[in-house]
Structure formats: C-alpha cells, structure tokens
Amino acid sequence: MAEPVLSIRELRKNFGALKATDNVSLDLRPGEIHALIGPNGAGKTTLIHQISGAIRPDSGAIEFLGEDVGALGMAARARKGLGRSFQISSLASEFSALRNVMLAVQAAQGSSFRFFKPVMHDTSLTEPALAVLERVGLAQRARLPAAELSHGERRKLEIAIALALGPKAFLFDEPMAGMGPEGSKDLTGFLDGLRREAPILLVEHDMDAVFALADRISVLVYGRIIATGTVDEIRRDPEVRRAYLGEHA
Ligand SMILES: Nc1ncnc2c1ncn2[C@@H]1O[C@H](COP(=O)(O)OP(=O)(O)OP(=O)(O)O)[C@@H](O)[C@H]1O
Prior knowledge:
By secondary structure, the protein is of the alpha/beta class. The chain folds into 2 domains: 1-81 and 167-249, Rossmann fold (3-Layer(aba) Sandwich); 93-165, no CATH class. Helix content is 37%, strand content 23%. It contains 9 helices and 10 strands. It has helices at residues 44-52, 74-80, 97-109, 123-135, 151-164, 180-194, 207-213, 231-236, 238-245, and strands at residues 6-15, 18-28, 33-37, 59-64, 67-68, 82-84, 169-173, 200-203, 216-221, 224-229. The strands form 2 sheets. The protein has a 6-stranded mixed beta sheet with strand order 6-7-8-3-9-10, with helices on both faces. A 4-stranded antiparallel beta sheet has the order 2-1-4-5, with helices on one face. The radius of gyration is 18 Å and the shape is globular. It binds adenosine-5'-triphosphate. Residues 15, 18, 20, 38, 40-46 line the site of adenosine-5'-triphosphate.
C-alpha cells in the first residue's frame, strides 16, 4: 500500500482535566477522503488545529510527506502543502473574492511584494486566481467584496483559497455547514473530484455527504477514536451506532 501522505501517532491534548485528544492515531492515504465524525465536543476541531499547527499537542507525532512537522508553525506547514480551508474571518472581507484568492496565489508563489506592476493588473496572479474561482463556481462573483457573498459562496471562497495554495493534502472542517441541501449536494460533487488532486481529511456532520464521499471514516468520541473503517464497516459497528450514528446508520 502507498505510504500515507499524513500520519498522526499517539496524539494527546488536554485542556485542564479534559482529554480533548486522547491518544489519537490516524493516517490519510493518497487519493482518499478520510472523514472524521463524532458528537459535538468530541475533539474534531481540536485535532484539525493540531494537524494544521494552530495549537500544539502535549505529546505525539505528526508526519506529513514523510517528514516530522510537529515543530513547525502553521505557516510553515501550509507552505509544505498542508492546506486547510481558512475561516472567512481570517480573510479580508472588504477585498474582492479575486483579491483574496490572489493573496493566496502570491503566497504560493513565495513572493510577498511586487513593485513593478499594480497588483490587480498582474496576470501572473489574476489568471491563476480566476482559474481557481472558476473551478469552485465563483468566477461571476470574482469582483464582489468577500463581505457581499452569500454564506455558501464564502465557504466556496475558503476552499478556493485552500486550492490556490496548491496543497498536497486538504483539512476541511465542516465545509457543508450552513450550505442548505442544494449547496451541500453541489459541494459534495466538488469534493468528490478534488480527492484526485490531494487527499482530504474531512470533519463533517452532514452524514449524507460523509457516506457519499468517504473512503474511510474514523469516529471520535470524548477525544478517542473508537473505530476506523469503510462506510459499511462504520455503519454496522455496534459501538459507533450506540455512541453516535443512532438513526443515521
Ligand atoms: N481552547 C480550549 N480551552 C479549553 N477547552 C477547549 C478549548 N478548545 C476546545 N475545548 C474543549 O475541547 C472539547 C473538544 O472541542 P472541539 O471543538 O474540538 O470539538 P468538536 O468535535 O470539533 O465539536 P463540534 O462538532 O461541536 O464542532 C470540548 O469539550 C471543548 O469545550
């Protein structure tokens, strides 16, 4: 079997007496969507934050593309290709959708300042940024300030920014949240194709999306992974049904 792109070993994170991450090991293989599900407060976001570098685990290891990235900060991990979808609050909401994606393209190109051309006329930035916006279906909305986009469009913009950074793995934390049934269906189709570009670790509460997309599912309860398996294995697992899936299974 191909080497995992991302490999997490025995990760632990306590908040005071709370074991938010309790000895978690999982991996992300090339081409797969690995969904991470579990009840509210199970520790899914905390885990994603540790992988992206936003918070530091108490112990354990995180290997990305064969390299231990545990000592690296969030920006250094992103530069290595660990792409997370940014919360819209971290975007410049007065900037246009296009400008926001251009900033990511610029970061991916490794240059932060250009003195010779006004940035909005720099085709080495506008063209790739427009291509990414086209892919997520936002090309027609490119010139609008991010603040004027609908909720669903903003989620797509977050994904566009992750894409523009040319990631080798995606970390998505509830991309379907607030999308509505049509939007979720749309995004499900998009994520389905995206796995060919880079594998996806997907935190998601929308079980229709998870069952449609996931190659494997890990179930997190009270900071612990209680099961990892295919959709069928997880749906049949009695402990998972008891702890989480219930009527969804
Ligand atoms: N910075 C923090 N300080 C203290 N406790 C925290 C902190 N961040 C998260 N927690 C707690 O850690 C636990 C896990 O939270 P987390 O947000 O990771 O869960 P989650 O599975 O993502 O939940 P949800 O599905 O509701 O988003 C919760 O009990 C939460 O209250």
